[in-house]
Design a protein that fits this description.
heterodimer, A: alpha+beta, 5 helices, B: globular
Chain lengths: ~240, ~200
């Protein structure tokens, strides 16, 4: 170890991520030119790597695995459904294609795995009638084979009925968007979570006149002003 | 519509693969490989997150986010920079500390220093199963062989997310002293590692 270097004292704090941001930046710059400190960092990182084991070792609750695996299986299913060329390495190109196809203009980067949802191709949307005079039922497309969704249109707004939807990732919600002709999707003010697999019903209290498409995306809590990820549900509403 | 099976186990072949091989399969969207990685490392991840955040709900959120980002290749694993386990626990650590800093404004944390010290004692819990005690005991005891002033600053930094200046104020000691204790303590741990078992990482 280098006795001369004045930064040597910082190595432990750096490895523990205990340097304030400005000091950390300075130390990182210093590391570039100081082999002795780089060596010390390498050594002390080995010590730091043992620190997790000093925590009392606990068994995580089984429900945690259920939740994680439910999300992973949904997304794996989606990847498989998109065929052999569904390789996430080529994601950027696919993202661009989806964005133009859906006329969405997310302001930020797509959240990583959610971009995988972009691989789905939306097919034709079928329009049906449930027999009621007041309510029209529109089948919505979801890209999860495990999920189904429909929109029930009434005189005073709509209702989104879904089954088999996975929970959104931690810290995220589903957000409902309304898109009018030639416009970007606007927030409907409806956000929801999925507590368990099964049927979920969300009332959309919004003026649906002139709305062409109803979209659902996964957004960071508490929701976004413009979509930041591709839709997981899309319904084309009748004119 | 049928619910997805939530409990199916990865096949024996998958179970035999090394972590690094499983990571390659995960990048191709193989959920059985992911499940094998989860089963191997979820306990360590949860234990670390619980120690840092102090609540099961937050710890579960942290573990879920960390594993999903592994699954989604948000964070690229680079085998030249250490084992999968060390890498994953690094993600868990960062997210748990981020959550701690986000949820605890500075003044609130300062006011509850006592509580944090208490939490850092990691009391044995009776309502959860304690795993791999033998594995942990050796490392734990090595941390305990450090002079208390060294193990304390390391724990406050690593599990509490405090900077050296915050710790200095908390313990009413000069920052140089705190940084020195961190370095000396970690150096001593390194020496102990060299004389005991294999080195992780």
């Amino acid at each position: 170890m280098n006795q001369e270097c004045t930064h040597r004292i910082d190595v432990g704090a750096y490895v523990l991520d205990a340097l304030p941001p400005d000091e950390r930046q300075e130390f990182v710059r210093h590391l570039d030119g100081c082999a002795a400190c780089r060596h010390d960092v390498g050594q002390l990182k080995l010590s730091a790597a043992t620190l997790p084991l000093t925590a009392t070792q606990l068994e995580p609750p089984p429900e945690l695995k259920d939740r994680v695996m439910a999300v992973v299986r949904s997304e794996a299913e989606l990847l498989r459904a998109t065929g052999p060329e569904a390789d996430r390495v080529t994601r950027p190109r696919r993202r661009a294609r989806l964005r133009s196809a859906l006329s969405l203009h997310p302001r930020g980067a797509f959240a990583g795995g959610l971009a995988a949802l972009a691989l789905a191709v939306f097919g034709g949307v079928e329009l049906s009638n449930n027999g009621s005079e007041r309510t029209r039922v529109i089948a919505a497309k979801t890209q999860l084979a495990s999920a189904t969704a429909r929109v029930e249109l009434g005189d005073h707004g709509g209702r989104l009925v879904m089954a088999g939807m996975p929970q959104p990732p931690a810290g995220h919600v589903y957000e409902v968007w309304l898109q009018r002709d030639g416009q970007l999707p606007r927030p409907s003010g409806t956000f929801y979570d999925v507590q368990r697999r099964g049927t979920t019903t969300e009332d959309v209290h919004a003026d649906l006149r002139g709305v062409q498409r109803l979209l659902v995306t996964v957004e960071p809590k508490p929701g976004s002003a413009t979509p930041t990820s591709p839709p997981v549900i899309e319904a084309v509403l009748p004119a | 519509m049928s619910l997805l099976p939530l409990r199916s186990k990865a096949g024996p072949h998958t179970r035999d693969l090394a972590d690094e091989e499983l990571m390659q399969q995960i990048r191709r969207g193989d959920e059985a490989a992911f499940e094998a990685i989860y089963d191997r490392h979820a306990s360590a991840a949860y234990s670390l997150a619980y120690r840092i955040t102090g609540t099961s709900a937050t710890a579960q959120d942290v573990v879920q986010e960390s594993f999903l980002s592994l699954w989604r290749s948000h964070m690229r694993y680079d085998h030249t920079r250490g084992s999968v386990r060390t890498w994953l626990l690094g993600i868990v650590h960062n997210r748990a500390i981020d959550g701690l800093r986000r949820n605890a404004p500075h003044d609130k944390r300062r006011a509850s220093d006592e509580g944090i010290e208490e939490r850092l004692e990691a009391p044995q819990r009776t309502d959860v199963e304690v795993l791999r005690r033998d594995e942990a005991r050796e490392v734990h005891s090595s941390l305990q062989t450090l002079p208390p002033e060294q193990s304390r600053v390391i724990e406050l930094a690593y599990f509490g997310g405090y900077t050296h200046t915050e710790i200095a104020a908390m313990l009413d000691a000069p920052v140089g002293t705190i940084k020195g204790r961190m370095r000396l303590g970690l150096q001593k741990l390194r020496t102990q590692l060299a004389t005991t078992a294999e080195v992780p990482g």
